[in-house]
Amino acid sequence: MPNAVPRLVLASASPRRLDLLARLGVVPALVDPADIDEAPLGAELPRLHVMRLAAAKAAAVAVSHAGDIILAADTVVAAGRRILPKADDEATALRCLTLLSGRRHRVLTAVTVIDAVGTARHRLSDTVVAFKPLTAAEITAYLASGEWQGKAGGYAIQGRAEAFVRFLSGSHSGVVGLPLFETRALLVTAGVTLG
User: Fold this and answer.
1) CA proximity to 64, closest of 34, 38, 36, 37
2) 20, 17, 74, 69: which is closest to 44 by C-alpha?
3) Which long-range contacts (CB under 8 A, 24 or more apart) does 23-30 make?
4) Are the CB atoms for 69 and 126 separated by under 8 Å?
5) Whether residue 68 lies in the annotated active site
6) 122 SS3 class
7) Where are the alpha helices (DSSP H) in the chain?
8) Summary mean pLDDT of the chain
9) Are strands 8-10 and 30-31 parallel, antiparallel or unpaired?
10) Distance between CA atoms of 191 and 49, rounded to whole angstroms?
11) Percent of the chain scoring above 90 in pLDDT
12) What is the pLDDT of residue 5?
């Protein structure tokens, strides 16, 4: 049975997404991370991959929260057509940073909001980021910081890696993990009151 007053449910365990939502004056009533397979499908392109995952996360969480408003997002770092992994170990982070050194890449963040009557709406933030050429010492120091752990592409722009960025075109908050312009538009359309 639908709730009389829809609650906002964030389908993500990311503390960064909670912090970004707070910038909009929004605090979700619940945090219920989606548990889905995030592996790319075959030769899936980055844009299609990230949009599929955001939609799948929202749909998975909506099953147990009928009548609520569901917000889900997914972020990928793409070098050309290649989706870079979330860095779960230092070797993966090293490979990502070495690949991104001195070149442009894209950070794609898809956002899906399912409103209280079950209508899903989607937005995509596409940001171009260029890293300066990184020295071996810079990479070593960044790896020692541990900031790369669990981060798409092996870096967190909201930390020390921001000093590597020589150019950014698009949404800084989208690179962090939740593009505020797109998210605000979706929440307003879904009837969420912003603070």
Assistant:
1) 34
2) 74
3) 23/173, 23/180, 24/180, 24/183, 24/184, 24/187, 24/194, 24/195, 25/194, 25/195, 26/187, 26/192, 26/194, 26/195, 28/71, 29/68, 30/65, 30/68
4) no
5) no
6) strand
7) 15-23, 46-62, 90-100, 136-145, 172-176, 180-190
8) 95
9) parallel
10) 28
11) 94
12) 81
Contacts of 193 (CB under 8 A, 6+ apart): none
What's the pLDDT tens digit per position in 90-104? 999 999 999 999 999
- Alpha carbon distance 87, 19 (integer Å): 22
pLDDT, tens digit (0-9, with 9 covering 90-100), for 24-76: 999 999 999 999 999 999 889 999 999 999 999 999 999 999 999 999 999 99
Give the mean model confidence (pLDDT) for residues 176-188: 97
Both tokens of 82, joined, read 């290649």
User: At residue 51, what is the residue type?
Assistant: M
Among candidate residues 181, 195, 194, 178, the one with its CA nearest the CA of residue 71 = 178
Q: Which residues does 160 contact at the CB level (< 8 Å), separation at least 6?
A: 142, 145, 147
Q: What is the CA radius of gyration of the chain?
A: 17
Kindly report which listed range (138-142, 177-181, 191-195) carries the lowest average pLDDT score: 191-195
Q: Which of 32, 74, 115, 126 is catalytic?
A: 74
Q: Is the pLDDT of residue 2 over 70?
A: no
